[in-house]
Amino acid sequence: MLVRSGLAAATPRLLRASLRLIDGIRRAERQYMRSVLRFEDVCVKTSVGPVRILLHRGSDARAPAWAFVHGFASRSEDWRPMVEHLLPLGLSILLIDLPGHGMSKLPEGRRLDADVLLPAACEALVWGMAALKNQRCVLLGNSLGGLVALRLASAPTKPVLLDPCIAALVLINPAGAPMQKAEYDALEARFLVNSRAEARTFVRNLYGSSKGLMGAFLSWGVHNHLNRKELKEMVELYRHEPAATPRMLGTLPPTLFIRGEADEFLPSTTLDYFKAHLAANRTEYLAPSKWGHTPFLNHGQYGQEVAARVIQWAHANEPLSLLPKRTREKGTKARRKLLQLLRLARSLAEADRGNKNTKLP
After folding, report:
1. Could you read off the pLDDT of 28-48 as tens digits, one per residue?
2. What b/e readout covers 39-54, taking b as 16+ CB neighbours within 10 angstroms?
3. What is the percentage of the chain residues whose pLDDT exceeds 90?
4. Which of 40, 56, 163, 177 is least enclosed by beta carbons within 10 angstroms?
5. pLDDT (tens digit, 9 = 90+) per residue, 102-114?
6. Contact 45, 104 (CB under 8 A)
7. What does the angle CA 150 – CA 65 – CA 341 come to, to the nearest 5 degrees?
């Protein structure tokens, strides 16, 4: 009894300690982005409140900037394992913290719905491109960020401010396909984390592992983070958000669509919907067998793998000029990094073909 009461008394202290540690890690990572990777940390005033962005100035303003929109309950620093392999190419890079995520606060009295997320992302993107002096961008989105990205890029819903600057689109396990009630229920259950055991499952699905001390700390943080009022409300609101329509999907620019076969969050039927309505002549599909919902989160091999496959696609679409000029100049650091990523991408493609052709037709 004394042991149980002692553990019960210690639990709040352990929770506060783990949250402080996780907060410290996140702040250290933000500082790493600024001081080591040389990102500028900027607060952009938008019509729906302040939005924080991380901005890296590349070597070629004539090449498109690469803008990244994270998913639900994520943040801009989560792209770091992938972005670190893109910086040597000389790319200009823009990372957006959506309202209520990362360093962007949700304005008082507002909800995390499309009326907040879309204007915030649009105005932050326009401001960032102006600061970078880039006229075009490659827009990348994951999960919820994929839905935001495709709405910003689609002709029927594209804001006038962004016309015609979005040159290409990369969607990594994007939300937006219609789902049956049972599928919504299952998705909602994954994000409405009500216990530490469910938090560990969430961390395992997201990061690929929940083992060890770091897994335990992450689980503590996830349990607290996902139980924030605005995020729980957003999960419930998503059920009523309109899906991406066939007309929206049919007007997207050249698109790389990535569906990780190990994705435990979105139902596999979402891929069928997107394949039925995305323009076949402008869309390439990849389905790596080991990639989960956010494969770039893995600080090991997957961050580099995602970078390699995306750059392989960008390089193959040479008429779009999606990469800086230095990647075509022999002997440059950018050229060497490009060739390294292309070699990795080819080996991954060969492994995919050996694993029952995971590249989709």
Report:
1. 889 999 999 999 999 999 999
2. bebeebebebbbbbbb
3. 48
4. 163
5. 899 888 888 878 8
6. no
7. 95
E strand or H helix at 228: none
Identify the helix (H) or strand (E) that includes residue 110: none
Cβ atoms of 93 and 86 within 8 Å: the answer is yes
Assigned token pair, 12: 């709040």
Which burial class, exposed, middle or buried, applies to 349 when counting CB atoms under 10 A from its CB (0-12, 13-18, 19+)?
middle
Residue with tokens 């002096």: 133
Confidence bin at 204 (pLDDT 50/70/90): low
Span 229-246, average pLDDT: 73
Q: Which helix (H) or strand (E) holds 264?
A: none
Distance CA 245, CA 156 (A): 10
pLDDT at 217 over 60: no
What's the pTM value of the predicted model, to 2 decimals?
Answer: 0.87
Residue the block writes with tokens 């990369």: 170
The conformational region for residue 45 under phi > 0 = left, psi -120 to 50 = alpha, else beta, is beta
Q: Determine the average pLDDT of the residues in 149-170.
A: 83
Pairing verdict, β 93-96 and 49-56? antiparallel
DSSP H helices in the chain = 2-35, 80-83, 114-132, 144-153, 181-191, 196-207, 212-225, 229-238, 246-250, 269-277, 301-316, 333-354
What was the pLDDT predicted at 134? Answer: 84
pLDDT at residue 356, rounded to an integer: 52
Tokens, residue 37? 């990777």
